[in-house]
Amino acid sequence: MIKDGATILFQGDSITDAGRSRENDAELGSGYAMFVASWLSAAHPQKRLRFLNRGISGNRVRDLKARWQEDCLDLKPDFLTIMIGINDTWRRYDRNDPTSAEKFEEDYRFILSQTREHTQAEIILLEPFVLPHPQDRISWREDLDPKIHVVRKLAREFKTRLIPTDGLFASAAAFREPEFWAPDGVHPSPAGHALIARAVIKELEA
Question: What is the CATH number assigned to the segment(s) 7-204?
Fold first, then answer.
């Protein structure tokens, strides 16, 4: 259970960013970070929880590494969620600027090692994901799947919690069309963000 006054930090790319304010930490954007904070604040008002969103649209894992001191370690989170990786795949297809699975693992391992060394944070990793809409997203699996396996490997190695986001969306797409959950296969709809939020809340309240 989350302790009183805990700081929960959300880290990642545009899926986490979701239009957050850079000037006001209370404005968490319109995505899963806002849903998580709203629900937990309503469910546990007496705990006076602090929520911080440091997602930045377009970020790859190398970008997290470059800003990890300021945007994670200095904030001393009690809980840390990380969702990163889809841009490491996307840039291969739209800019011919790939990130190998090996480099992805090297940089991801760095940020986890630094977090373990300098904080007491409970870490929750979220897999990157893609849905098969539009059609070209199907070919992305070749690049993304090895990165998902890296995240799973690092979760075991660093004994973090893991949310199988890719699997959650694949399962959800059996009930409604993929574009209902993520119109471009990457950025969640409100329902898609709620799907992520529900999984994060479950981990935070465990």
Answer: 3.40.50.1110
**Phi, psi at residue 38, to the nearest 5°?**
-65, -45
Residue with tokens 């370690």: 73
Provide φ and ψ at 75, rounded to 5°.
-85, -10
Catalytic residue from among 13, 14, 17, 133 = 14
In the residue annotation, 71 being an active-site residue is answered as no
Is the separation of the CB atoms in 175 and 138 below 8 Å? no
Phi/psi at 96 (5° precision): 55, 45
List, for residues 151-206, the tens digit of each pLDDT value.
999 999 999 999 999 999 999 999 999 999 999 999 999 999 999 999 999 999 98
Q: What is the pTM of this model?
A: 0.98
Gyration radius of the chain over CA positions: 16
Residue 184 annotated among the catalytic residues of the structure = yes
Contact 44, 20 (CB under 8 A): no
- Active site (annotated) includes residue 187: yes
Domain positions in the chain: 7-204
